[in-house]
Write a structure and sequence with these properties.
Length: 127
């Protein structure tokens, strides 16, 4: 782990904040498009935290698969969560301002599960 540990921890804290938003929206049963977006953001910020902690400069992108390709160069096991990342990326890009996007509760729950798998993977492989 690098000297960027404090900055990386701040990014991880921001990821946890995204998950807090997701949990609040989910419990209220409202804002399911927001659930999808904030789930993606939680995954994105956790990946960026890991990259910063490992002295990699995360790209300014919302495409999780691009960020994970940087992770895989350092830790090949990150390839295990690429499928989840591809599914989530659309929530930050294509779907963010799509007025016809009204996800079901199941779709929002799936987005949360995918994002949680990525974040849990990041935390498990932190050192």
């Amino acid at each position: 782990m690098s000297d960027n540990g404090d900055l990386a921890q701040k990014w991880l804290k921001m990821a946890d904040e995204e998950f807090a938003i997701v949990e609040a929206l989910s419990e209220a049963g409202v804002g399911l498009a927001g659930v999808c977006f904030h789930a993606q953001q939680g995954a994105e910020k956790s990946i960026k935290a890991w990259l910063i902690a490992h002295d990699a400069d995360p790209e300014k992108t919302h495409k999780l698969e691009e960020l994970l390709s940087l992770c895989v160069q350092i830790e090949p096991r990150f390839s295990e969560v690429v499928a989840d990342s591809v599914a989530l990326t659309e929530y930050a890009i294509e779907r963010r301002y799509d007025v016809d996007f009204w996800p079901s509760f199941d779709q929002a729950r799936t987005a949360l599960e995918q994002a949680r798998r990525i974040c849990d993977f990041v935390k498990k492989h932190w050192s």
